[in-house]
Structure formats: C-alpha cells, structure tokens
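Hi all, a correction to my earlier message: I attached the wrong file for LysR family transcriptional regulator. Here's the right sequence:
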Amino acid sequence: MSYQIELRHLKYFLAVAEHLHFRKAAESLFISQPGLSRQIKEMEESLGVQLFDRHNREVKLTHAGLYLKEALSKNLKNLEDILHHAKLLEDGKEGLLNFGYVGSAMQKIIPELLLKFTKNHPNIVFSLKEMDNNKQIEGLLAKTMDIGFVRLDKVPRGLEIEPILKEPFCLVLPKTHPVDASNFKTLLQCKADHFILFDPEYSASYYEKVMEIFDDHGFSPLVSHNTIHAGSIYKLVENGFGVSIVPKSLQTETNQNLKFIELNEIPQRTTLSLIWNKDNQNPILGKILAVIHKEILT
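and the right structure:
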C-alpha cells in the first residue's frame, strides 16, 4: 500500500528519532502511541525504507534512518521558516527576525539599529530575547535565531562573528561607598569589598578578562555572587552586598543609589560582537546586516 508523505510524518519521525522511544515521542507530540506507530509505519512503507530497528522495547535508527534524521533536522527548519514567511506576507508583514542578545546590547546598539532599520522596513516583526552567549550559539546553530549580540572572542564553525563595539569597563559602587570619582586612584581601594560579577557561563572569555583586571592589580577578588543579569547585579550592589565591574554600555544614570567610575586607565577592554549563521536563508537577515555595516559600523 502506498501513502502520501506529509509534513506531519516528518515531524513524527524526528520525534521518535530524538527520543528513540515511541511512548515518550507520542507524549511530546500529544498524540496516542498506536497512532504514532501507525504514522511511522505508513512513512516506512511509502519510502520503501526501514527507519527503525525494533527489538523488544529497544528502538534504534537504521543507517537510512540516521541519514534521514540528520538531513531533515538540517532542512526541515528551513521549510518551516519558508512557510511561516509566506504567512507573514499574507498578513501584510515583510518577515520575521529573531534576535538574541546580552543585556548591554539593549542599552543603545539594538534600539539604534531597530530605529534605523524600521525607517525603510516598517513591516518587520521582531522577536527579541535576552540570553547568555551559549544559548545564542545554540539558537543560531539550530536556526531558531537569526542574529545575536554576544561577548565572545570566537564562535563555532558555521557562524560568522564581527566586532561591533569595543569599550572600557566601569566600577559599580553603592552610593554610600567611601570611594567615588573624586578620590578613586586604583582598584586596590576596593580590595576588601565583595564583588558581584557576571557568571562565567555568561561568557568564559569575558569572565577571564575581568579576572585579568584583578590579576594586574595583584589581588584575587572576594566574589560573593554571580549572575547573568545586570539588573540583579545592580540590585545587589544597591543593597550593600558588594561592588561590581561591568561594561561601560551598562552604565545607567537613572538609579541614584549607584555610582559608576569608568576604568579608562586599565588596558582591558570588552567587545560586543554581532554573530549570525552564514547558512541562514531568512531574506531579512541580509537586509539588516547591510544596515549594520552601513550605519552602525561606520
């Protein structure tokens, strides 16, 4: 018997290939296990290919099944994006762009970019999510994201990286701290303070650069808290739990309970970079990269 393979068959196959367990795959798809088994059998009969080896309760991919999983995982996302883009066009939208970013990019870079881009492309739908560097890498490789803003020195093969902002660091202090811009001479004045820093998971290379600052001043910091969110750092500093070091772009003038001292005299700088997947087929990606190169990086 011949069956017509539909998109649902491919999704069902990928679910079983991922879980290697029909019950768990069925639960993830919110369908019955017998129904899922029947759909996979239809797909195998239609292709004339055995996709899974089933022995008792153990499920394994055949060589053909493994190939199909790798090929579909890579290409099915492109197909879904194409179909979604067609729906956006029907709704009067030009397209969708998924952003990932570290918090400091939202202070100036991203708002400036969106203002410039939407002048000529007012019908773009933007999805913006703050996330750490590793999550952005995963999203770009999986093509669930189109563009990212990270603090990394290098990225995995398949991704492109371009520096967009190089900046100094700032010391963050509570307003009651005896050190301020008028009497600050060296970071050693804060040697006895606890430090609240971005977690190494935020960016290992960024964390190492901050540690270099302490190394150059001849002491190891008393790190009391790690976090991936600037807002958490500021709330802890504000309430007297310690001091911090952050990129200059995170400096804010709206919180009167904090003091910022720019560390311009030290050699360390931190770089905010733009990253994207060079195989991304989203037609909007090339347009926004063109705006970045023409109006942001010039």
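Sorry for the mix-up. The chain has a mean pLDDT of 88.
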